[in-house]
Amino acid sequence: MLTSAALTPIAVHYPGRGAAAMPPATRHAARCSTCAMRHLCMPQGMSAEELPKLEAVICTARAVRRGESLYRAGTPFENLYAVRSGSLKTTMAHRDGREQVTGLRLAGESLGLDGISNDVHACSAIALEDSSVCIVPYAALKRLCRESGAMQERLHKLMGEQIVREASQMMMLGSLSADERVAAFLLDVSGRNVQRGYSSAEFNLRMTREDMGSYLGMTLETVSRTLSKFQKRGLIDTRGKFIRIVDLEGLRDL
Amino acid sequence: MLTSAALTPIAVHYPGRGAAAMPPATRHAARCSTCAMRHLCMPQGMSAEELPKLEAVICTARAVRRGESLYRAGTPFENLYAVRSGSLKTTMAHRDGREQVTGLRLAGESLGLDGISNDVHACSAIALEDSSVCIVPYAALKRLCRESGAMQERLHKLMGEQIVREASQMMMLGSLSADERVAAFLLDVSGRNVQRGYSSAEFNLRMTREDMGSYLGMTLETVSRTLSKFQKRGLIDTRGKFIRIVDLEGLRDL
DNA sequence: CGTTCCGTTGAGGTTGTTCAAGTAATGTGG
DNA sequence: CCACATTACTTGAACAACCTCAACGGAACG
């Protein structure tokens, strides 16, 4: 769990700015070993002698500006990533060019597993705000996994988690109404914020209404109308991309 | 790729009966090392000395009767499985009890990865016909993966494939019309048949219309109407659960 | 400070759902 | 092996949820 104070301000106190608002010194202090990477790289039970190897492998950082892609569908897969600050969306395209948002990654979460099956990325990853990621060369990580059972376990869990998360998303798309989907999405983001040590009630969702709609299988207009409706009912309080959940139970009950 | 002649009749020549139609002797002959397990367990590049270890770990079989569950959501995760004959669906439930079909597994495909993240299964797996699976104890497989890079690679690819498959399914649910979804589904099953050495044009889909609807995010009535429409247009030829694809290109063009 | 992108809201249309009835398959016990 | 019970599939008609098109106000950004 990411509880490092260094990252907290990014999401909570500088909601409109992202990583850019964090002073460079702080940014530098938030090295992988003390921040988001915990989640990917610091399984409990990793021995003192394994840790340095791990850090040697993983700790290269990369900045991605808002709108830029970290990787593109169809390009060779080489690295996994952990979001250090900011947030990204993953998208997938049809033959006919239609694109859909398939995922949202917040600070502390991992990225890039879609490339493992074919050595080519199946999705594109695009920054929703100026962000920074840790680069984890897959080949090196694989080697490490053969040396360390804890590391192997961690990687398996990461993949397993994504499998379950995507299955839940399929369920959501397949059997929930528009209202239910929006509510479930807000609760999901809220829950992930709690996991990462942030507020469950307030957050900045850097996706546009169109991104949300694409992710939730509906149009941007329906997203907007649904959020307005929730607001009228006193369930949430929204001002553009900033969202406060007022009645969490109310959202859960649909 | 599963090309064993022993399995072919199951899907092609005994469409109405499933594994039950195969004589017991044949069934016994179709041991893991020669059949479905290839896909899970016989990565290219596995050395002669690794192979026996592998077989020692994986080759326990289990029969699952139509309608029975191989595992249930919420039960402890211990094994992965490879479908040896027959087919299963995976389902996931909401808090409120609503169930949705989240996957279809044909002979040669793997099953159970949904349990890795939490050591508890997230889905249930239910046989669509009398089926048989190979049991692969996860703990033993993990050990093996640390000894064999090829095995590690294979497991990673399996998980990666499921991640990509589920992302595609999300796309389908999120942005395709009912017609497109049904067509995509038929093409998907057709393609998987080809991969497994069967006919791309003819197959028995043991799911009910309700299962398909649940999987595709629509009602059973819409599935039925859509299939009827495709039939009228000369795209497919259906008689209950048996489906022949007449105009593959036509389906691709929507 | 203008331009572009984003968000909101309304009116009307379409797709897919719901409810209902009837028919075909499947499985079971006699 | 047949008659029956059950489950699965098909089709129709009315309705609702969501989409499309359109117009406008506001925020973000160079």
UniProtKB/TrEMBL annotation, chains A, B:
Q: Does Transcription regulation show up as a keyword for this record?
A: yes
The entry lists its GO molecular-function terms as: DNA binding; DNA-binding transcription factor activity
Supply the SUPFAM superfamilies for this chain: cAMP-binding domain-like (SSF51206), Winged helix' DNA-binding domain (SSF46785)
UniProt-listed PROSITE patterns = CNMP_BINDING_3, HTH_CRP_1, HTH_CRP_2
- What InterPro entries does the entry give? cNMP-bd_dom, cNMP-bd_dom_sf, Env_Response_Regulators, HTH_CRP, RmlC-like_jellyroll, Tscrpt_reg_HTH_Crp-type_CS, WH-like_DNA-bd_sf, WH_DNA-bd_sf
**GO CC list:** cytosol
Source organism's superkingdom? Bacteria
Q: Does the keyword S-adenosyl-L-methionine apply?
A: no
Which ranges carry the HTH crp-type domain? 176-249
Which keywords label this protein? DNA-binding, Transcription, Transcription regulation
Q: Report the residue ranges that make up the Cyclic nucleotide-binding domain in this protein.
A: 42-112
Q: Which CDD domains match?
A: CAP_ED, HTH_CRP
- Any Pfam family from its record, for instance, is cNMP_binding
Query: What's the protein called, per UniProt?
Result: Fumarate and nitrate reduction regulatory protein
This protein's species is Paraburkholderia solisilvae
Gene it is expressed from = fnr
